[in-house]
Fold:
Amino acid sequence: MTTTTRRGLLQAAAALAAGGAAAGARSADAPPRTPFAVAPTYIPIAGTDQLFPVRRIYCIGRNYAAHSREMGSDPTREPPFFFQKPTDAIQIVPAGETVDHPYPTLTKNYHYELELVAALSKGGRNVTPEQALDLVYAYTVGLDMTRRDLQRAMGDEKKPWEIGKSFDHAAPLGYLQPAAKVGHLKEGAIVLKVNGQVKQSANLNQMIWSVAEQVSKLSEAFELMPGDIIYSGTPENVGPVVRGDVMDGHIDGLPDIRVRVV
Ligand code: MN
Structure:
């Protein structure tokens, strides 16, 4: 494609997005004309009738020292790192309900990772840790579900882990709890039970990078935008679930989530 053609296409796309003349005769607030619909992803905001529109899901890896060691790395030498899940992997888990979570295809070793999730209502680049919490609008409890066998196999082959982390329903989470109500969560128990038995039990203050530091680090690599959410890493003792297992996720200060693997 020539530069000129490409520029023309980009301008046409921009005009469409802006509801301009290229879009044809329709009112400025009409949705763009598309041959089919793609569902946007929203998370309900607790205590309101509003929905939080999700732009990107960032996840941090190896952000608790003991989990980093159980995954085979040395937290004193290898800093945490980021990856993403697709936005439409979100599965909403209302408080007080048990949500059916489909066991995914291709895996024989399906793992839970319980995590604090932070949701941003403001963006920025090169945000300092001191400014970072101004971007954080809300928190919730989330599961970074992982096809561990596929993740490991790809890692062993030095290929991207995408297939282990980024699949349908891979991101169950609760309604967002605004920080204006629950505060900024920096310490408190994070506990995952499977069928009533405690499997993961740690404290948010054991994170290597705090939520503020994660926002700051991420903003060096990407321009953060409103609608971005961050899975802040899991503590040690990740492990498998099978069909029929019920997972209870708890973080002090937030409503629990409950998911049944089906
Ligand atoms: Mn994780």
In short: The first helix runs from residue 3 to 17. The chain has two domains: 1-37, 41-261. The pocket of manganese (II) ion is lined by residues 59, 113, 115, 144, 231, 233-234 (CB under 6 Å).
